[in-house]
Amino acid sequence: MQKEVKRLDRVVIRFAGDSGDGMQLTGDRFTAETASFGNDLSTLPNFPAEIRAPAGTVLGVSSFQLHFADHDIMTPGDAPDVLVAMNPAALRANQGDLPAGATVIVNTDEFTTRSVAKAGYASNPLEDGSLSQFQVQAVPLTSTTVRALEEFDISKKDAERAKNMFALGLLSWMYNRTTESTITFLQEKFARKPEIAAANVAAFRAGYNYGDTTEAFAVSYEIAPAPLPAGTYRNISGNPALAYGLIAAAQRAGLELFLGAYPITPASDILHELAKHKRFGVRTFQAEDEIAGIGAALGASFGGGLGVTTSSGPGIALKSETIGLAVSLELPLVICDIQRGGPSTGLPTKTEQSDLLQALFGRNGEAPVPVVAAKSPSDCFYAAMEAVRIAVTYRTPVFLLSDGYLANGSEPWQVPSVDSLPTIEPGFIREPNGPDGTYLPYLRDAETLARPWAVPGTPGLEHRIGGIEKADRTGAISYDPDNHDFMVRTRQAKVDGIARSLPPLEVDDPTGDAKVLVLGWGSTYGPIGAACRRVRRAGLSVAQAHLRHLNPFPDDLGEILRRYDRVVVPEMNLGQLGMLLRAKYLVDVIGYNQVRGLPFRAAELAEVFKGVITDV
Amino acid sequence: MQKEVKRLDRVVIRFAGDSGDGMQLTGDRFTAETASFGNDLSTLPNFPAEIRAPAGTVLGVSSFQLHFADHDIMTPGDAPDVLVAMNPAALRANQGDLPAGATVIVNTDEFTTRSVAKAGYASNPLEDGSLSQFQVQAVPLTSTTVRALEEFDISKKDAERAKNMFALGLLSWMYNRTTESTITFLQEKFARKPEIAAANVAAFRAGYNYGDTTEAFAVSYEIAPAPLPAGTYRNISGNPALAYGLIAAAQRAGLELFLGAYPITPASDILHELAKHKRFGVRTFQAEDEIAGIGAALGASFGGGLGVTTSSGPGIALKSETIGLAVSLELPLVICDIQRGGPSTGLPTKTEQSDLLQALFGRNGEAPVPVVAAKSPSDCFYAAMEAVRIAVTYRTPVFLLSDGYLANGSEPWQVPSVDSLPTIEPGFIREPNGPDGTYLPYLRDAETLARPWAVPGTPGLEHRIGGIEKADRTGAISYDPDNHDFMVRTRQAKVDGIARSLPPLEVDDPTGDAKVLVLGWGSTYGPIGAACRRVRRAGLSVAQAHLRHLNPFPDDLGEILRRYDRVVVPEMNLGQLGMLLRAKYLVDVIGYNQVRGLPFRAAELAEVFKGVITDV
Amino acid sequence: MSEPVRREIPVTALKAKDFKTDQEVRWCPGCGDYAILAAVQGFMPELGVPKEDIVFVSGIGCSSRFPYYMNTYGMHSIHGRAPAIATGLASSRPDLSVWVVTGDGDALSIGGNHLMHALRRNANLKILLFDNRIYGLTKGQYSPTSEVGKITKSTPMGSLDSPFNPISLAIGAEASFVARTLDSDRKHLQGVLRAAAQHEGTALVQIYQNCNIFNDGAFELLKDADTRDDWTIRLEHGQPIRFGRDDVKAVVRDPATGSIRVEEHVAADDPRVVVHDAHNADPAYAFALSRLSGTDLRYTPMGVFRSVERPTYDRLLNDQLDQARAAAEPDLAGLLAGGDTWTVYQ
Amino acid sequence: MSEPVRREIPVTALKAKDFKTDQEVRWCPGCGDYAILAAVQGFMPELGVPKEDIVFVSGIGCSSRFPYYMNTYGMHSIHGRAPAIATGLASSRPDLSVWVVTGDGDALSIGGNHLMHALRRNANLKILLFDNRIYGLTKGQYSPTSEVGKITKSTPMGSLDSPFNPISLAIGAEASFVARTLDSDRKHLQGVLRAAAQHEGTALVQIYQNCNIFNDGAFELLKDADTRDDWTIRLEHGQPIRFGRDDVKAVVRDPATGSIRVEEHVAADDPRVVVHDAHNADPAYAFALSRLSGTDLRYTPMGVFRSVERPTYDRLLNDQLDQARAAAEPDLAGLLAGGDTWTVYQ
Ligand SMILES: Cc1ncc(C[n+]2csc(CCOP(=O)(O)OP(=O)(O)O)c2C)c(N)n1
Ligand SMILES: Cc1ncc(C[n+]2csc(CCOP(=O)(O)OP(=O)(O)O)c2C)c(N)n1
Ligand code: SF4
Ligand code: SF4
Ligand SMILES: [Mg+2]
Ligand SMILES: [Mg+2]
Question: What is its EC number (chains C, D) (predicted)?
Answer without folding.
Answer: 1.2.7.-
